[in-house]
Amino acid sequence: MARLISLVEDGHPALPEVMAALAPYGGHAHVIGLTGSPGVGKSTTTAALITAFRDAGRRVAVLAVDPSSPFSGGALLGDRIRMEQHATDPDVFIRSVASRGHLGGLSFATPQALRVLDAAGFDVVLVETVGVGQSEVEVAARADTTVVILAPGMGDGVQAAKAGILEIGDVFVVNKADRDGADETVRELRHMIQLGNREQSVGWRTPVVRTVASRGDGTPELVQALTAHRHWLGESGRLEARRRERARSEIEAIALAELRRRIGGADGLVSDALASSVSRGDTDVYAAAREVLGRVTGEGTRQ
Amino acid sequence: MARLISLVEDGHPALPEVMAALAPYGGHAHVIGLTGSPGVGKSTTTAALITAFRDAGRRVAVLAVDPSSPFSGGALLGDRIRMEQHATDPDVFIRSVASRGHLGGLSFATPQALRVLDAAGFDVVLVETVGVGQSEVEVAARADTTVVILAPGMGDGVQAAKAGILEIGDVFVVNKADRDGADETVRELRHMIQLGNREQSVGWRTPVVRTVASRGDGTPELVQALTAHRHWLGESGRLEARRRERARSEIEAIALAELRRRIGGADGLVSDALASSVSRGDTDVYAAAREVLGRVTGEGTRQ
């Protein structure tokens, strides 16, 4: 399985064959995305969830979506050590997926890695994003259930709103709930969710769960909320819609990566000369884009 | 100018004409990207820099790259109010650029908005990213000079490393440097930069500047570091290389957005039926991507 995921990361030529073979075996796993600012306790929450799901006899996989910084080795290693209690459990699989610089980035590697884990028969796949940005938020939001984690004093709700992660949460967690300011964070969050739901009205009452993940406090309530959401997705028909959107973005990412590869060479779609010409102001950027499109579609340039 | 940037955000049909007209007028502005976790003081730093650059007689524009959450109106409004001291200054221009859900996202809207401001003759354009993720980091990293801001007790260097923002910094700022733990953050950061530079050896000695942006402390040192970096870029020939990469990603984003639009209809590149078929496991994802590619390039599907 680890080798299959490495094929995904490398964009290996055998991937199409592998994915064709796996296609019929998916759709069983509950895919749960976890996101939140650095320092709120995403890894600790992930570790607590692994323990809780294992106690319930479920097989659990974790994908840590890693911006793949050359600096990040140490930090992610720390997370792995924290999860080492599960290292010898054959029904737990933990893996970082590097994505920076990848053709298509997060949107290329993550859904295909998910597909591998799903086909391998895991009951739960947790997708933990390391950064909090547009791509990470989109990856987390394309899970079956998206968990947004906050902590008191980490900048609170307003900062979460700025990071754009409030509207994607199906379940909210206020972690480190034994700290000062937890009540305020919960209150502020409930208020903002209410404001958001007025517009959305999706038929799911978004819960806010308090946890102290390092002690396992609140984990049973979190698992219950996740299970309830999975149940609601199935009953309401939203599960299929979400998975269709996930498939759509996956198809698009693969098609775009393939387009880049076909035209490419070392330069990708755009040659040094063309980029320099735009950078110097000799060619305008749309004319350059038309030239590239002409090569992609095999036509001459057109307006 | 505000209207031109709205055209960019909307992906207006007149954009190619506008960009062709602007092409010869760019290349003057010093483009400075600012990134860092929520709560470190990016907006306050931006405000301090505006004041400092204005005191030096320079015209300053700010692009706040906004994930465009429906929740974020209030938060960004707060930032705007903080910058209101410059509201009546005709040589300061501040604008949020929405991007979520946009064809091509941040990589489509931001460089074109930059192009507008550059052509308009601003001496300095500050690009402040709101989230900290792959896309935001890429946008900030494509500036001429990239500033990474941290604050003591916000999770510090290790968290920054996890967010993948350490290796992109040309200048580092430890803001809120009057707080406990500032010395440790500076030390840790210097250590991590040293580790990184061993591998990179780019001929630029990455400075770490202490600031208390809310009081303007350290702002002169920051401006000096930014100016020194701009000078080094020009002397070393790196400026042209960076701007070529910026142009390259801009051309690519426009070409890809246009491909989506051409194939599109409401569904974009991928129809509901095709996405559902993949989601159900009836079609594998690479076969679906080949089908999409066939339509893009006007050929039949091929292996």
Structural description of this entry:
The structure is a homodimer of 303-residue chains. Chain A is of the alpha/beta class. Chain A folds into 2 domains: 2-242, P-loop containing nucleotide triphosphate hydrolases (Rossmann fold), CATH 3.40.50; 253-297, no CATH class. Helices cover 51% and strands 13% of the residues of chain A. Chain A contains 12 helices and 7 strands. In chain A, helix 8 links the parallel strand 6 and strand 7 (208-210). Chains A and B meet through helix 2, helix 4, helix 5, helix 6 and helix 7 of A and helix 2, helix 4, helix 5, helix 6 and helix 7 of B.
Weakly predicted, low-confidence segments of chain A: 68-75
Q: What structural class do helix, strand and pairing data of chain A support? A: alpha/beta
The total strand number of chain A stands at 7
CA distance, first residue to last residue of chain A: 48 Å
Q: What is the CATH first-level class name of the largest domain in chain A?
A: Alpha Beta
**Which oligomeric form is depicted?**
homodimer
Compressed to H and E, one letter per element, the order of chain A equals HHEHEHEHEHEHEHEHHHH
Please name the CATH architecture of the largest domain in chain A: 3-Layer(aba) Sandwich
Major sheet description of chain A: 7 strands, parallel
- Mean of residue pLDDT values of chain A: 81
Looking at the structure, the CATH topology of the largest domain in chain A is: Rossmann fold
- Gross morphology of chain A: globular
The total number of structural domains of chain A is 2
What is the number of helical segments of chain A per DSSP (H or I, 4+ residues)? 12
Largest interface, counted by CB within 8 Å of the partner chain's CB: A-B, 97 and 96 residues
Task: Specify the CATH homologous superfamily of the largest domain in chain A.
Answer: P-loop containing nucleotide triphosphate hydrolases
- How many whole angstroms does the radius of gyration of chain A measure? 21 Å
Helix percentage of chain A: 40-55%
